[in-house]
Design a protein that fits this description.
Layout lengths: L1 H21 L3 E6 L7 H16 L4 E6 L7 H10 L4 E4 L23 H8 L2 H14 L1 E8 L3 E5 L13 E4 L3 H9 L3 E4 L5 H6 L5 E4 L1 H6 L8 E8 L2 E7 H6 L2 H35 L3 E3 L3 H15 L2 H12 L1
Parallel strand pairs: 1-2, 1-3, 6-7, 6-8, 9-11
Antiparallel strand pairs: 3-10, 4-10, 5-8, 5-9
Helix pairs in contact: 2-10, 6-11
Bound molecules: L-galactonic acid (2Q2).
L-galactonic acid binds next to loops.
Length: about 325
Amino acid sequence: RRLTLLFLLLIQLWSCSTSSENKPEYVLRFGHLANNRHGWHLASLKFAEEVKKRSNGRIEVKVYPNEQLGKEMDVLTGLLVGSADIMITGESLQSWSLPKAILCATPFAIRDSEHLKKVAGGPLGKEIEQHILDGAGFRPIAWFERGARNLTANRIIRHPDELQGMILRVPPVSLYVDTWSALGAKPTPMAFSEVFTALQQSTIHGQENPFALIKDAGLYEVQKYCMLTSHVKSWAYVVMSGKKYDSLPKDLQKVIDESAKIMQEYEHELFLVQEKKDYDFLVEKGMEFIEVDNEAFKAAAKEAVLQSFDEEQTDLLNRIQQV
Ligand code: 2Q2
């Protein structure tokens, strides 16, 4: 009998230990605004997989696409109060008293991919990341190059003069509001998850985004034309709650860092092949691509940016353009 008891005890101990192995010590909630076909989503899943593997299951990352954790601005608050832990963000950080954050998406600041890589991945990128961490407690763990933002509408616009009166959805980013106002449109800040319906109901006339989001959010169903304005070449940040990161033991912080690096590389591989595919897809769906007077857009936007920027932002912009 004693043996049986001992045996039962051992069984119990064994099952306890295996169940605690299966149960993660930390669950991290990772939200973003794209849908489950978008590269951001595939990259977040890759991150979750790497984290699980490298932490031996001690950390579980749960990914929430389509603003399921909340609108971008709300998830930023969520990072501070603990209802979210990781998210993809960028220029919207400008609204968090992070003036330097807008340099990741300033109209006509970045020339091409090569330039973008040198800036985002170099000392200026580090400076912006440090500013985001120090100023708001959001810790950038990776950055993703994005396709150029282009304007979509149901009428053709070739020159800024033709923007007069157009109600244009922009993300809640004050530089975007300032720039499009100066160009003659009526910019209306709105969360991304509301854009499709607003276009469908014509409460807004247009929006601007990279091909990837135009495709994955189905915006081509409610927008006929894509104007090749390429007005913003930007990168986004994957940020983690700094408090959450600091609360992890050192070995798990390392797991986060390593997995984030893998996620960043993986996302970039997807991005490189995806842009052309997205373009072809949109053409096939009947979207028409319109050449615009790029010089006119550029001149008007550059002036608006300088009007909107303070000294610190202008200085950073100048340094970016010297890279
Ligand atoms: O149009 C959007 O909402 C996105 O493409 C935004 O540019 C992006 O999410 C930024 O708001 C990032 O802060």
